[in-house]
C-alpha cells in the first residue's frame, strides 16, 4: 500500500498517533507529528512511497513536535527528535518540513554504518549507474534532477549507498531538495516536474522539494552496479567540458568525500578500489543543463548498447 | 500512568532478557526486535548483543534488519577500538624517556587487558591515572607533541583544576581523540577519599610494561565508583556500567583470593558503601555468583533501612531505559535524584548548590551544544 492511498483523516491520525511508517529505499522510517502542515504535505509529496508492512522492523523513529514548555506560547517553534531524544536546535514552525528531511538525512548519515556511505548523487540506466560525487554547491542535485527527468532512474541525490557484500549501489530515492536559483532552473528545464512549496529564508536559503519520477520510487529495492564516476562542477558561463581523469585522482576524491570511509576502514578501501577499477572516471564542468545532459548521454550511450 | 508503566516494564524486560539470554533472540518477534534495537541503542548495548550473538554463532538466525543495526554498531566499535589502540601507542611514543607509571582506566584498560567487558563495548576516550605530582610534566610533554588543551570556559577550568580528580581533557590536533588524565578516582572534594597511593602500589603491569592496570579488587571498586558516583542528570546510572561490573566480578571471581580480599580492600579505600550497592544490584539484575560469606560481610556495612529501601526503589527505576515513546516521569525523577546524590557525595553542600545552579543557568540560557541540522556537515559525524 502507498501513502497516497490513505484517506487524509487516516494519514493524520497515524501521524499523530502510532506513526506513519514509510519505506525510503533500504530504510523504514516512522514519522510522528501533530504539527499542522504535515498531513497535507506528506500526502502531496510522499504519495508514491510504500507504507512499511506492520510486521517489519523500523529503522528510525523520528518526531516533529512543538515544545512542551512555556516557550510554545511566545515563539512558534518545532523540535526534531529521534527515539525521544532531541540534541538539535529548534526550527521555526514554517520550516518544519525541511527540518524533517534534514533530520532523516542525519539519522542515515550517523547510523547506517553497515553500508559505505559516499557523498554522491547516483542515477541508473539499463543496470549501469553513474555516481556524481561532489561537494555542496557544485550543482550535483540540479544535474541529478535534470537526468532523472531525462530517462535516468534516481538512486539518490545525496547518498551513494554501497553494500559491502557485493559492492552494488542501493537506491534511496528521497525527495530532491533544490536550493535558491536551482528551483527555477528545473521549473524551466522540465515544467512537468512536480515541485512542492518553496520554504523561504531557511538556514540554506529557499528550499523546495522535487518528487522523483514514480518509476524511481517503485524500483527502490533494485540495486545497480557502478559504471561511471563523474565529478561535476557548475560554473556560471563556462563552456562544457567532460574530460577523463586518472583513476588515482578519482580514488582520492571519492574516499575523502564519504560519510563514513574511516568507520569502514579496510572494507571501505576495498569497496572504493573496486568501484574505481570498474568505472570510467571523468570530470564535468558545465553551465547549461541541456548541454550537460546531452554530453552525459553521448558518453554513456555506447555502453548501454 | 498505567500505560506508561506498562510500556516501561515491557521495554526494560526485552532489554534484560536479551542481555541475560541472547541465545533466545532468534525467536524474538519483529515488534520486539524493533523496540529492542531502540532501547539497546539508547543504553549503548547494540554492540554487546552483536558480540554475544556472534559468539553463539546465531547472527544468521535473526531478522536481516536487526542484523544490519548490529553490524553497524560493530563497525563503529571496531573503528573506535582502532583509534584507541593507536592513541595508546602514540601516548607511549610521546612519553618515551619519561619514567612514569601509567595506569589505564575503564574502556582502554578492558581492551588492552582483554577483559570480558571489552567485546562489543563502545570506547570513547583514553583515561589514565598517574601520580598527581607527575600530571603537569605529562601534560606539558603531550602538549609539545601535538595534543592541545581544549578551550573550556573559566568556570569549568577552575572546576577541574581546583576540585576535580582529573585535568581538563587533552585533544590531539589532527586525530581529534581525547585523553583524560586523572590523579585520583574521585574529586578532591569528595566525602569518600580513596588514597591514590594505595592504587599505585597494587597496580599490575600489562603486556607492555610501561602500562599498568589496577589490581583486580581496585579495578572492580573503580567500576563501582564510576557507576554510582558519575553520570548525568538525564541518563542517571548507566546500565552498561552495571553490566561491566557483573562481567568483571564473574571474571575475577574465579581467581583465588579475590572474594576474600575485596571487602577488606573496599574498607581500606573507604568504598564499602558503593561496593555494597554494586554487589546488591549486579545480583538483582544478573544473579551474579557472589559467595554468601562475601554477602554477609558486606551486609554488615550496609546503610540503614530507610536509605536502603529508597535506593532499592530508585536504582532499578533509573538504571533501565524504559520505552522511548513513553517517557516515564517517575524514572526521570529517580535519575535526577541519583544525580544529585552523586554530587552530594562528591562536594560540600554550599559548593553543590553553586555548581548545580551554574549548570542549570547554562541549560536555561541554552548554552549546551545543540546540533543545527541545516548547517550540519554530515561527513563530520
Structure summary:
Chain A is α+β, with helices and mostly antiparallel strands and 305 residues long. Helix content of chain A is 34%, strand content 29%. Chain A folds into 2 domains: 3-111, no CATH class; 116-304, no CATH class.
Q: Which structural class best describes the helix and strand composition of chain B? A: alpha/beta
* Sequence of strands across the biggest β-sheet of chain B: 3-4-5-2-1-7-6
Shape of chain B: globular
Number of strands of chain B: 7
- CA radius of gyration of chain A is 19 Å
How many E-type strands of chain A?
16
Largest sheet of chain A: 8 strands, mixed
What oligomeric state do these chains adopt?
Answer: heterodimer
Query: Can you tell me the residue ranges of chain B where pLDDT is under 50 for at least 5 consecutive residues?
Result: none
Order of helices and strands of chain B: HHHHEHEHEHEEHEEHHHHHHHH
Amino acid at each position: 500500500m502507498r501513502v497516497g492511498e490513505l484517506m487524509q483523516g487516516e494519514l493524520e491520525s497515524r501521524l499523530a498517533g502510532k506513526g506513519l511508517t514509510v519505506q525510503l529505499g533500504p530504510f523504514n522510517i516512522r514519522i510522528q507529528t501533530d504539527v499542522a502542515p504535515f498531513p497535507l504535505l506528506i500526502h502531496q509529496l510522499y504519495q508514491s512511497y510504500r507504507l512499511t508492512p506492520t510486521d517489519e522492523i523500523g529503522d528510525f523513529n523520528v518526531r516533529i513536535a512543538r515544545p512542551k514548555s512555556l516557550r510554545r506560547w511566545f515563539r512558534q517553534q518545532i523540535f526534531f527528535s529521534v527515539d525521544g531524544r532531541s540534541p538539535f536546535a529548534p526550527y521555526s514552525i514554517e520550516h518544519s518540513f525541511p527540518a524533517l528531511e534534514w533530520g532523516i538525512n542525519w539519522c542515515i548519515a550517523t547510523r547506517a554504518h553497515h553500508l559505505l556511505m559516499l557523498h554522491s548523487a547516483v542515477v541508473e540506466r539499463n543496470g549501469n549507474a553513474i555516481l556524481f560525487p561532489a561537494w555542496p554547491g557544485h550543482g550535483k542535485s540540479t544535474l541529478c534532477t535534470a537526468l532523472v527527468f531525462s530517462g535516468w532512474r534516481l538512486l539518490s541525490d545525496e547518498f551513494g549507498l554501497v553494500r559491502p557484500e557485493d559492492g552494488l549501489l542501493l537506491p534511496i530515492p528521497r525527495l530532491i531538495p533544490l536550493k535558491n536559483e536551482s528551483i527555477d532552473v528545473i521549473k524551466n528545464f522540465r515544467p512537468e516536474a512536480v515541485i512542492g512549496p518553496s520554504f523561504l529564508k531557511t538556514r540554506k536559503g529557499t528550499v523546495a522539494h522535487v518528487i522523483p519520477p514514480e518509476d524511481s520510487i517503485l524500483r527502490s529495492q533494485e540495486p545497480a552496479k557502478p559504471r561511471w564516476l563523474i565529478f561535476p562542477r557548475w560554473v556560471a558561463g563556462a563552456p562544457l567540458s567532460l574530460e577523463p581523469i586518472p583513476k588515482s585522482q578519482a580514488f582520492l576524491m571519492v574516499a575523502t568525500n564519504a560519510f563514513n570511509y574511516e568507520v569502514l576502514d579496510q572494507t571501505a578501501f576495498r569497496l572504493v578500489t573496486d568501484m574505481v577499477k570498474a568505472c570510467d572516471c571523468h570530470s564535468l564542468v558545465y553551465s547549461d543543463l541541456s548541454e550537460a545532459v546531452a554530453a552525459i548521454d553521448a558518453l554513456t550511450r555506447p555502453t548501454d548498447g | 500512568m498505567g500505560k506508561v508503566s506498562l510500556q516501561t516494564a515491557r521495554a526494560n524486560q526485552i532489554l534484560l532478557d536479551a542481555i541475560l539470554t541472547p541465545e533466545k533472540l532468534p525467536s524474538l518477534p519483529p515488534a520486539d526486535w524493533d523496540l529492542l534495537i531502540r532501547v539497546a541503542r539508547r543504553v549503548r548495548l547494540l554492540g554487546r548483543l552483536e558480540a554475544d550473538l556472534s559468539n553463539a554463532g546465531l547472527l544468521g538466525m535473526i531478522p536481516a534488519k536487526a542484523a544490519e543495526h548490529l553490524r553497524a554498531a560493530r563497525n563503529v566499535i571496531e573503528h573506535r577500538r582502532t583509534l584507541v589502540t593507536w592513541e595508546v601507542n602514540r601516548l607511549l611514543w610521546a612519553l618515551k624517556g619519561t619514567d612514569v607509571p601509567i595506569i589505564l582506566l575503564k574502556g582502554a584498560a578492558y581492551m588492552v587487558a582483554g577483559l570480558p567487558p571489552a567485546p562489543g563495548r563502545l570506547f570513547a576516550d583514553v583515561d589514565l591515572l598517574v601520580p598527581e605530582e607527575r600530571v603537569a610534566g605529562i601534560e606539558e610533554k603531550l602538549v609539545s607533541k601535538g595534543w592541545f588543551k581544549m578551550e573550556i570556559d573559566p568556570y569549568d577550568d577552575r572546576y577541574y583544576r581546583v576540585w576535580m580528580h582529573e585535568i581538563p581533557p587533552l585533544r590531539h590536533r589532527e586525530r581529534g581523540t581525547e585523553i583524560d588524565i586523572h590523579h585520583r578516582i574521585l574529586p578532591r572534594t569528595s566525602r569518600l577519599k580513596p588514597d591514590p597511593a594505595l592504587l599505585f602500589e597494587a597496580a599490575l603491569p600489562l603486556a607492555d610494561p610501561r602500562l599498568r592496570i589496577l589490581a583486580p579488587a581496585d579495578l572492580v571498586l573503580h567500576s563501582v565508583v564510576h557507576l554510582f558516583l558519575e553520570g548525568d542528570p538525564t541518563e542517571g546510572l548507566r546500565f552498561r556500567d552495571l553490566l561491566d561490573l557483573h562481567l568483571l566480578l564473574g571474571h575475577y571471581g574465579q581467581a583465588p583470593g579475590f572474594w576474600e580480599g575485596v571487602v577488606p580492600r573496599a574498607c581500606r579505600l573507604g568504598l564499602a558503601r558503593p561496593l555494597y550497592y554494586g554487589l546488591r544490584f549486579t545480583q538483582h539484575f544478573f544473579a551474579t555468583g557472589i559467595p554468601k560469606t562475601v554477602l554477609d560481610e558486606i551486609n554488615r556495612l550496609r546503610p540503614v533501612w530507610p536509605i536502603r529501601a529508597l535506593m532499592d526503589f530508585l536504582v532499578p527505576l533509573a538504571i533501565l531505559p524504559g520505552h522511548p515513546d513513553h517517557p516515564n516521569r517517575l524514572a526521570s525523577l529517580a535519575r535526577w535524584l541519583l544525580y544529585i546524590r552523586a554530587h552530594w557525595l562528591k562536594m560540600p553542600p554550599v559548593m553543590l548548590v553553586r555548581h548545580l545552579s551554574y549548570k542549570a543557568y547554562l541549560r536555561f540560557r541554552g548554552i549546551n551544544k545543540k546540533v543545527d541540522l541545516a548547517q550540519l556537515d554530515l561527513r563530520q559525524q
